[in-house]
Amino acid sequence: MTTFQFPKSFRWIALLALLPLTGCEDPQREVKLQWREDEVNKKEAAVIQREMALAKEKQVMEGNRLDLLAKEKSVASLQKQLEEEVEKTKRVRREVEIRQLRGPIPQISADRVIVIDAASDEIMFEKNPDKRGAIASTTKLLTALLVVEAGELDKIVTVEESDTQCSPVRIGLKAGEQYTRRQLLTAMLVKSSNDIAQALARDNAGSVEAFAAKMNEKCLALGLQDSHYVNPHGLPARNGDEPFSTARDLSAIAKACDVQPAIREIVKLQSYSFKWPNGRVTELSNTNRVLRSAGYCDGMKTGYTDAAGYCLVASGERNGKRRIVVVLNDTEGGVWRDAQALLDWALKA
């Protein structure tokens, strides 16, 4: 095998190429390069310092921002507390003024009572408002509400034999007689006739039992948990399933009636001329005596049974203020006195 060899002159050239070239560089250029490197390093260090200073400044600013937010939150909380205190002071001052205007709460003999502002639902006075018990013919307010909500008050109702089979008070309806719903509704609310209540219930729901179920459904719709109805008139049940309600629940039903123009127009009547099918007219005097003794009273409904005692739901208005009073389990003489005194007291302010 033949080996190729470079000439000696070529080998010296290669060795020279491997020698350092630094000795051939310009010294001034080296100095300039070093100066530039130093300047770059200085600027890098300055940038790093500035970045560190900026980060620290940002940290301080963030701390100041959080401190400011905390202070703003504290100021807002203090302002809210101040506003609440101002409102509380106004409310207390107003309550004091109202108490001074109304004077002391009347002394009453009724066992279950509530007085409400019909517009705001404010409870102005209460006594055993959630105590369950019989409510007698004030039951007919819920009967009236369902009848009015069904509409067609000028529709004819034909009396059936079952409508006439009830305890007094009765107006004396006879099977086959025909009246409008409005006639029957008016007579029921003015004179509290139980046979009329049964006729309206049967006309509305097909039977007294079906109507009672609708009454209880309405109570649930109104959010009432302490009421149970078994008939449209409030008389004691024959099967032991006794009806009951409370002053509070009854005030809610009264308020629902109070916004019905048809009911408002009826319950304020001091009397009503009931016309029989044969043309005879019977003058019915409203059982609510407070309508005649207090000009500010404009409704609503009376009631009495042994279990309920003497009852009255009374409504009234004066100087733009509207109130509803519920008085249950009172005495024969006390019911009128208590209801009128409470209504007058509540309407003073």
Automatic annotation (TrEMBL):
One of its GO terms (biological process) is proteolysis. Residues 106-330 form the Peptidase S11 D-alanyl-D-alanine carboxypeptidase A N-terminal domain. Residues 68-99 form a coiled coil. This is D-alanyl-D-alanine carboxypeptidase (Penicillin-binding protein 5/6). Keywords: Carboxypeptidase, Cell shape, Cell wall biogenesis/degradation, Coiled coil, Hydrolase, Peptidoglycan synthesis, Protease, Signal. The active site is at 137 (acyl-ester intermediate), 140 (proton acceptor), 192. InterPro entries: Beta-lactam/transpept-like, Peptidase_S11, Peptidase_S11_N. The keyword Coiled coil applies. SUPFAM superfamilies: beta-lactamase/transpeptidase-like. Substrate binds at residue 301. GO terms for molecular function: serine-type D-Ala-D-Ala carboxypeptidase activity. Belongs to the peptidase S11 family. It comes from Prosthecobacter fusiformis.
